[in-house]
Amino acid sequence: MEYEEFASCKKIVDKTTLAQGFVDEEGNLFYVEPGFYYNLIGFKDKRREDFEKILQGMKEAVKRNHKVIFTGNFEAPFVEKEGFVYLEIEDISDPLKIFFEDKSRGSDYGD
């Protein structure tokens, strides 16, 4: 799967992980795990008006930290690499005051 949101970055091949790796124009390295990307696309679908702000927040996080793994769950990441900062979608969206609450829940039948 191509992550079109990062087309301006150089894609790197890392056969040790399922996450896609990229190098930005300044040489900073970042990985995007499938779980993070799923959440990112959720924001694109539900909060389209704020999507560019989230992408900008990701770019700023990469520039600030130089080595970032955008993970679906920092307690159980797909990618484990020394010297990288692990960030979840909320680490980007919450400081921007962009919230997405999944209100779906199971049925009340059977309670």
Tell me the structural class. alpha/beta
Strand order in the largest sheet: 1-2-3-4-5
The total strand number stands at 5
The residue fraction in helices comes out at: 25-40%
Shape: globular
Distance between the termini: 41 Å
From the alpha-carbon coordinates, what is the Rg to the nearest angstrom? 15 Å
Main beta sheet strand tally, sense and closure: 5 strands, mixed
Query: Count of DSSP helices?
Result: 3
Round the mean pLDDT to the nearest integer and report it: 88
β-sheet strand percentage: 15-25%
**Could you list the spans in which at least 5 consecutive residues all have pLDDT below 50?**
none
Q: H/E order of the elements? A: EEEHHEEH
Present the secondary structure layout.
Layout: E1 10-12, E2 20-23, E3 29-32, H1 34-46, H2 51-65, E4 67-70, E5 85-87, H3 89-93
Parallel strand pairs: 3-4, 4-5
Antiparallel strand pairs: 1-2, 2-3
